[in-house]
Amino acid sequence: MFDAVARNFWFLMGGLGVTFQLSVFAVSGGILLGMLVGLARLSKRGWIYHPITAYVNFLRNIPLILVIFWFYFVMPILMGQAIDPFPSAVISFIVFEATYFGEIFRAGYQTISKDLINAAYSTGMTYWQTARYISIPIAFRRMLPSLITQSIVTFQDTSLAFVIGLQELVRRVSIVDNLEVRSIQLYGFAALVYLVVCLVGSRISRHFEEKGRKANIL
Amino acid sequence: MGLAYEFDWGVLWRQPYGLWLLKGVGLTVIIGLSSWFIALALGIFIGTLRVTSYRILRFIGTFYVEVLRNIPLLVQMFFWFYAGPMLFGEHLGRKINHINELNIYVAILCLGLYTASRVAEHVRAGFASIHRDQYQAALSTGMTQMQMYRYVIIPYALRLIIPPLTTEFLTIFKNTSIAMTIGVAELTFQSYRIDAETFHGLEATTGAMIIYFFLGMAVVKFMGLLEKRFKIPGLVGR
Amino acid sequence: MIEIKKLNKWFGDFHVLKDINETIERGKTVVICGPSGSGKSTLLRCINGLEPYQEGELIVDGTSLNDPKVNLYKLRQKIGMVFQRFELYPHMTAIQNITLAPTKVLKWSKKKAEAKAMELLERVGIPEKAHAYPANLSGGQQQRVAIARALAMEPDYMMFDEPTSALDPEMIKEVLDVMIDLAKGGMTMLCVTHEMGFAREVADEIIFMDEGRIVERGTYEEFFNNPKTERARAFLDQILE
């Protein structure tokens, strides 16, 4: 039943490998940039808050495909030479997903109640000690489920890098489909792969959410 | 800086490119609105399924949501477009493949089904935030479960979930861009096409970005008006 | 000794503390009561520098908080504080909550800190809960851990901000017992509370605040049996309901 898949299995798995690679870069970069974005959105300094807020609000109205194209067009101009689809895709994803990770961080920082911080201060701890041992660990545990969920979304989004020719899973499936025309099997297979990975991911996220709720951290 | 690139912003309004962009916007709006109606109707239905007292119905609802939420929209679109017709067997399948504008219908259907899964989740959350006593009050006047949902709970829940629905409405317009991968000539497709012709993709995509941005603002504005019109007095809002 | 001189504080336009004058001597227990919104909590937070003030002066053991070079961190080591909602660190066990500041701020060794923590847990009556997480402790137990946490820094003063208001009635006694024990042991205490039983037992002075001012002060007997002002009388009527 899945003979076309079996015949081209390793080719397709290579595509999954590229998908994972892209996801890892996109998620790590997105989280790092997102931390800064989240902090910036909490800043009282206008010159930090306004530009970053404008960037977040602008990007959230725009389709990811368009952002992928835009970077694919812009990068060669800036760098004076043609660019590979993979790095171009990585940059597009980092810039795009950072807006979503940023909102998660912003919400996370805000959940630490003022009195909890005061409790730490009242024992003589400094701002940085409080941040390091109290605020950041607690905020991180609270944000973990959302961070995992957003990472899953990013994993799904990587399929869009298809449009600039990146040889990730979906593109390879369509290449095989052109040859074998066994569309039901092939696209069904792609759907199944994503379904499994994402279900596992959301199970993990729910596990952390339960853990956090039990410990009254959430 | 010495960029070896000459900007040509004229591609945005010179003919025929300006017309292409306009047609693209038109198609984006049509596809967005059509799928939104499907998504709302189906989403409310499935969201309701998930909270009924019949296990089998709940299971169907959960199955639908989990499957559609965890597969990328791109894969779903390809599936319905390439594999879909074949599901009807060789003969009918071939006939379907010859329908003009099949890709537009598939796009609307697919986007509607996908977004319905997300709407269903918001609807379910809306139901959950209504106090149990509300349900019991309605039932105590003799209504059946179905009547209770139709006349009391669903209208109440819908008003509660206008903010997350706004996000979904925005998202649906953004997701119309994925239809370009099956050849639908909506806005993103057109900007890519302009690049293919003129090599000024940067200007074209920047222009498209700005159009999407204003489209988004219009949606937010519209939903904001809707929220005001249907506001439930006394409920804690913003 | 804590001296408060003509303290005034605003939150924006809202004048929350008006001309507060008070002296708290070592070894004394002072109870502050009054309707909510009268500024009691704010006053406590000014004393250990958690809240700034705009006018007046606060002097703790000779150090003025008006001095721009004042080391607030050192100051806070001398003043322990217990909060209404306990505010235990949810991601740490009871003993970790207590040893965190001594190890990081006073640079004690883990051994020394844990020994002290166990001693304090014994003192507040729950040594067996040392390795429990706050989520697994009752409200009364959490508050006692919070008291131990504050005591771990070996402060000269202890401030309590409505420590029993968030507790179920059955647990109030266990916390008050710890506080009474502390007071009788000679700790200088400043308590915002409505628990008049506690005040009767150990308070050297009762301060009644209303709308940001100290309206009345006196010993327990004076305040209870002979309130001098109308507002104090009204307040007493309410809480004795």
| Structure classification of chain C | alpha/beta
Distance between the ends of chain C: 36 Å
Largest sheet of chain C: 6 strands, mixed
Helix content of chain C: 25-40%
Taking all Cα atoms into account, the compactness measure Rg of chain A is: 21 Å
Task: Give the tally of structural domains of chain A.
Answer: 1
Of all protein chain pairs, which has the greatest interface, and how many residues does each chain bring to it? A-B, 39 and 42 residues
How helical, in percent, are the residues of chain A? over 70%
- The CATH class designation of chain A is Mainly Alpha
Q: Bin the strand percentage of chain A.
A: under 5%
Q: What order do the SSEs of chain A take from the amino end to the carboxyl end, as H and E?
A: HHHHHHHHH
H/E series of chain C: EEEHEEHEHHHEHEHEEHH
E-strand count of chain C: 10
Brief description of this entry?
The complex is a heterotrimer of chains A (218), B (238) and C (241). Chain B is mostly helical and 238 residues long.
Note down, in words, how this protein is organized.
The complex is a heterotrimer of chains A (218), B (238) and C (241). Chain A is built from nine helices and no strands. Chain A has 218 residues and is mainly alpha-helical. Chain A has one domain (3-217): MetI-like fold, CATH 1.10.3720. Chain A is flat and about 70 Å long. The mean pLDDT of chain B is 85. Chain B is flat. Chain C has nine helices and ten strands. Chain C has helices at residues 40-47, 72-78, 94-104, 110-124, 139-151, 169-184, 196-202, 220-225, 230-239; strands at residues 2-11, 14-24, 29-33, 55-60, 63-64, 79-82, 157-161, 188-192, 205-210, 213-218. In chain C, β9 and β10 (213-218) form a beta hairpin. In chain C, α3 (94-104) runs parallel beside α5 (139-151). Chain C starts with a strand and ends with a helix. The interface between A and B is large, with 39 and 42 residues.
Q: What order do the helices and strands come in, and which of them pair?
A:
The complex is a heterotrimer of chains A (218), B (238) and C (241).
Chain A: H1 3-7, H2 9-42, H3 46-59, H4 64-79, H5 85-110, H6 114-122, H7 127-157, H8 169-180, H9 183-214
Helix pairs in contact in A: 2-3, 2-5, 2-7, 2-8, 4-5, 5-7, 6-7, 7-9, 8-9
Chain B: H1 17-49, H2 55-69, H3 73-83, H4 90-97, H5 102-128, H6 132-140, H7 145-160, H8 162-175, H9 187-198, H10 201-229
Helix pairs in contact in B: 1-2, 1-5, 1-8, 1-9, 2-5, 3-5, 5-8, 6-7, 8-10, 9-10
Chain C: E1 2-11, E2 14-24, E3 29-33, H1 40-47, E4 55-60, E5 63-64, H2 72-78, E6 79-82, H3 94-104, H4 110-124, H5 139-151, E7 157-161, H6 169-184, E8 188-192, H7 196-202, E9 205-210, E10 213-218, H8 220-225, H9 230-239
Parallel strand pairs in C: 3-8, 3-9, 6-7, 7-8
Antiparallel strand pairs in C: 1-2, 1-4, 4-5, 9-10
Helix pairs in contact in C: 3-4, 3-5, 4-5, 5-6
